Automatic annotation (TrEMBL):
Keywords: Protease inhibitor, Serine protease inhibitor, Signal. CDD domains: TIL. Residues 28-89 form the TIL domain. It comes from the Eukaryota. Pfam families: TIL (PF01826). The lineage of its organism: Eukaryota, Metazoa, Ecdysozoa, Nematoda, Chromadorea. This is TIL domain-containing protein.
Amino acid sequence: MHCYSTVLSIVLLCCILLTVARNATKECPNGAEFRNCTPICPELTCDSFDKPRFCFSLRCGAPGCACRSSHVLIDRANAELGCIPIEECP
């Protein structure tokens, strides 16, 4: 019986840790949000959003920050600058 309660305690602890990890707040630049599934294709930028895209994928990239819907990167080389709404692109 002792072995059963130990295994149950370990499983419960793992579930709690996974829940906490999933709900952890990730800090992302302005206009970006944390996603468990990021795009594999390069993020659009102010310079590229109106050009044809040759990348398409339904697969998930690694968890991380990505631009919010209708936002694009200000500058791909400086992603820490964040994302802005497309209509605000210069």
